[in-house]
Amino acid sequence: MKIIDLTDYYTEYLANNGDLGTYEKSYPALFNHYFKYWADRIKPVAKISKAEISNRVKLITDSLNYLELKFNMAGFDIANLKIVLFVGVNKTNGHAFKDGDEYIVWLPIETYFSRQLCDVFISHEIGHALHYMSSEDFYFNDLSEKLTVSRQLVTEGLATFLSMKILNIGEGEALWADYLSREDKERWLSQCLLERKTLNKFVLDNFNKNDSRIGLFYANDPDNIYYFRAGYYVGLKLIEEVSAATKIGLSELLEMPRLTLDKLIFELLIN
Hints:
- Helix content is about 60%, strand content about 10%.
- The chain has helices at about 5-15, 20-25, 30-35, 50-75, 115-135, 145, 150-165, 170-175, 180-195, 195-205, 230-245, 250-255, 260-270, and strands at about 1-5, 80-85, 95-100, 100-110.
- Strand 3 and strand 4 (about 100-110) form a beta hairpin.
- Helix 5 (about 115-135) packs across helix 7.
- The longest helix is centred in the N-terminal third of the chain and has 24 residues, at about 50-75.
C-alpha cells in the first residue's frame, strides 16, 4: 500500500501556528470531502502531540503491513491502494473517497488507539475502497445519496463482512473491535438479536429514505441501539444471508451490481 502521511503538515501549520487553511492545502480534495460529508468545520481539530502522532502512525503502519498480507492471502492485491493519514476532528474512523480516477482510503489517526481497533476498522475502510472500485454505483456524489439507508446498509454490512472474513474473527469483534468492552459488546449484540425483527421492519420501512435523523449508522446513544450502529448489525446479517444463498466469494459480492444486491436485500427484508 502507498501511505500518504499528512501529519507533518498538521504539526507544522496547525499545531504550531494555528493555520487550518494551510494544513488543508496539504490535500484539498481530501479535506473538502471530509468536511462536506463527515465532519463539522465548527468542531476543532484534535490536539495531539508530535510524540503521540509518531506512536499512532507506527500503530497504523504496522497494522497496514499486516493487513496487506491478510488481503493478499484472500486474493486481493492492494499494493497500489493509497492510504491517507491525517489528524481530524475525532468524529469518524475513516472511509474511502474518489479522487480523480482513484478511490483513496482516509484514516484520521486520532481515532486509532489500539492494534485490534486498527486491524478491524482499517480492514473495514479498505473494504469500502475495494467495494467502490468493484461496483461504483454504491459510491455517493451528494449528501442525499450518502444518507440513503439502502446504500449504507449494503456498504457497511459488506465492509463488516469482509473484515470478519479477512481477519477470521467473530461478528462482535468485526462490528466493534475493542471500542466496547466485552460485556458491553455482548449486551449490544443480545439487544440487536432480541430486536432483529423490529429492526428489519424499520429498515424496510426506511429502505429508500435519506433522512439524517435516522440514527442506525450513528454511535450517539449507547442506551438505544437505533442510534448506536444497529444498521451495521442488520447489514452484516443480511450480507451473510446473501453470501449463504448465492454461494459466491468475496470478490463476486463486491462486484455485484447495486440493483441486483439491493433487490436481494429488499426481498430478504420482506421475507
